[in-house]
Amino acid sequence: MPLRIDVITIFPDYFAPLQLSLMGKAQQSGLVTIAIHDLREFTSDRHRSVDDTPYGGGAGMVMTPEPWGQAIDAVVTDQSTLIVPTPAGKLFSQPVAAELAHSTHLIFACGRYEGIDQRVVEYYRPRIDVRELSIGDYVLAGGDVATLAMIEASVRLVPGVLGNPESLVEESHQLPGVEYPSYTKPPTWRGLDVPEVLLSGHHDQIARWRAEQSTIRTTHNRPDLLPGS
Ligand code: ADE
């Protein structure tokens, strides 16, 4: 069964890039179906408003629960996972992407402003799998770009989407660290040579060199990923 993805947003145009490259091919081949929904279609007032001032005071606006309830009800089933991108969520990671890739139905609720009235999460949590997820320790202007990142990371792990699944095996060999550096032709560029070992044809030496480079890079760039840290 293909993975179904529904995205609810006030900026449907943000999702045009999903027609390109690997994500476009995944949809064309029928492995994934992605539908984008405009939250404003689910408002009932003349101004199609989606936000209001926060109870308790404070800066900014909060998205009202009413249109969100209507929009989510229009797509939800008991098989759905509701994903709410927020900097206050649990950190999205490769294992989470793999879980999402093996789901039946994902609904992304893209908030703007100071987020969505928390009762939307409270309402759906006893009914379906609900995940508040952050893509990193920085604040975006809304959940749309975070949703694009999570869809791309997850959809490439749907079986059949990658033409060469060997690349997933290589990625997983580096975990929990980061990947080794890559080189291609020409062998010399602006006086810089490709590391000799990669031209040697000695597969065991190449594997050892790559594992070392992966450790060096992880130590330098991501010491937080080293065992015991
Ligand atoms: N919305 C705003 N910032 C975000 C982040 N870092 N992750 C997910 N959603 C967000």
Short description:
The protein has 229 residues and is α/β, with parallel strands linked by helices.
Would you mind describing this structure in some detail?
It holds the Pfam family tRNA_m1G_MT. One of its GO terms (molecular function) is tRNA (guanine(37)-N1)-methyltransferase activity. Helix 3 (94-101) crosses helix 5 (143-155). The chain is α/β, with parallel strands linked by helices and 229 residues long. The strands form three sheets. It has a five-stranded parallel β-sheet. The chain has helices at residues 21-28, 65-73, 94-101, 119-124, 143-155, 166-174, 203-221, and strands at residues 3-9, 32-38, 51-52, 62-63, 80-91, 105-109, 129-134, 188-189, 192-193. The protein contains seven helices and nine strands, in the order βαβββαβαβαβααββα. 31% of the residues lie in helices and 20% in strands. A hairpin with a 2-residue loop joins strand 8 (188-189) and strand 9. It has two domains: 3-163, Alpha/beta knot (3-Layer(aba) Sandwich); 166-225, Orthogonal Bundle (Trp Operon Repressor, Chain A), CATH 1.10.1270.20. Adenine binds at residues 85-87, 134-136, 138-140, 142-143, 146.
